[in-house]
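Supplementary notes for students who missed Thursday's class. We covered one full example, reproduced here. Read the sequence, then the structure, then the short commentary at the end.
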Amino acid sequence: MNEQIKAPKGVRSKTPVDYTSQDYWNGLIRMSMSKFFVLCVLANRPMHGYEITKAVARTTNGCCAPTPGALYPVLREFEEGGYVTYHEETVSGRARKIYKITDKGHKAFQIAAKSWLDMSRCIEASANGKCDIDGCC
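Structure (token representation):
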């Protein structure tokens, strides 16, 4: 008899993470890098949401293209934190928010870029068998 065992009521059953999966690591990297690349493309010029998505996709060769469901909460978070502002324009009778990075957003981008560069050096050293436990991270 092949009966599936169910978790007790109120207990969530969770599938174990496969840390040997390239898809897992790619997804984790994409998720964490998307905020960085939103700031990156806005550092070049103001854009509306669809432009931001396309610019991030182009900048990352498709690796980190955020979906609208992921992009707009990030933009709202950045706006609430003072990292971006927006103004509305009407195009073909439709209102469009144009997002612009602030000085605080530029500073956050510069700090994030330095952090990612530092981390990438550590990852490269580790991958080459030269992990310095006291010098990384």
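Commentary. Strands lie at 47-48, 84-91, 94-101. The domain at 22-127 is CATH 1.10.10.10 (Arc Repressor Mutant, subunit A). If anything here is unclear, bring it to office hours.
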